[in-house]
Amino acid sequence: MNRVNNLNNLDIMKFIAAILIVSIHTTPLLSLNETISLAFENTIARVAVPFFFAASGYLFFSKISTNDKRTAAKSAGSYWAKYTKRIAVLYLVWSLIYGVYDIPHSYQEHDHDLLRAILIYLRDFIFLGGHFHLWYFPALLFAITALYFGIRMMSLSKLLLLSIGLYVIGMFGDAYFGVLGDDTVLSRLAIQYSEWFGTTRNGLFFGLVYVVLGAYMYERRVTVRYARPGLWFSLSIVGVIIEVVLLNQFIVIRDCNMVIMLLPATYFLFQMLLHKKSPNWSIDFKALRDSSLLIYCSHGMFLSLYSNALGDVKAHSLTWFALVFLSSLAMSLLIIRLRSSEKASRYVSVFY
């Protein structure tokens, strides 16, 4: 494999994944057809976040994996500390930016009870994200840390099996909540958990399995190959669609973040990217990679701005998507451009 081409493929997919995440939050197809819009947002687009986790696990493990056991522990620990510090800084900086809106909103939402508003905001900051879409960062911090310490206690294969078990448990707080029944012991436990922690879409139940899957694919990168990974990915996406349709048909679901077929869909998407030569494009792949992160981080502010401006966004969903995405893209390119300036570099480097 040509590793440069492989990583370029990952950068391209990261940018596509950022677009898919914006589309989930703006429902661009809603003004065209409600059924198609719902199907797209709850099936194909849902592979974006799992891919981000898997890519993080793959790249993180590639840095700490070494055949020299004498230096492995020291170098791995140093890289883990550096990696988690960077993610923590990103999370804190963007949370402070969104906190200008979130903290007063929490205060008003909880009947001007300052203590309660602060406690709930702190809970959300730890488990749900300072702003609704920033949950990814604490989830990634937990998952990467669990991977780092987990491989010191068990093999990567066993850690993957454990994380799959946790994922299955987490599904009952998400897409498979209705399976627990009405007012049963398990459903009451799930409701109680939600009151305490908000969601199972977090680092323990959701992010961990994809981070470990990414690490597993790096470890098995030579032996695991498929003649037609694109075909298997397509079949997996069809499986996601069928699963979501059946779930909506027979039970009450909370969300579509955690469904069974997303696991093979993410796996085969990654295999397809790893074993295909990337397009011969004369572009800056690092800028593409950086812009995907900045689009993800910044699009939340434009969601609020344009939804207020457009009023009934359902009637203008495609316009809403275009405005949010293009504004986020413009901001990301501006920040990247400013980082190349010596004077502005140290001020904008904390954003990505």
Look at the structure and give the mean pLDDT: 89
Span between termini: 29 Å
Reading the helices and strands in chain order gives HHHHHHHHHHHHHH
Main sheet characteristics:
none
Number of strands: 0
Q: Figure out the total of helices.
A: 14
* Poorly predicted tracts of residues: none
Structural class: mainly alpha
The gross shape turns out to be globular
Mind telling me the C-alpha Rg?
A: 20 Å
Share of helix, binned? over 70%
Strand coverage percent: under 5%
Describe the structure concisely.
Helices cover 73% and strands 0% of the residues. It is mainly alpha-helical. The longest helix is centred in the first third of the chain and has 41 residues.
Characterise the protein shown here.
It is a single chain. The chain is mainly α and 352 residues long. The protein has a domain of 113 residues. It is built from 14 helices and no strands. It is globular and about 55 Å long.
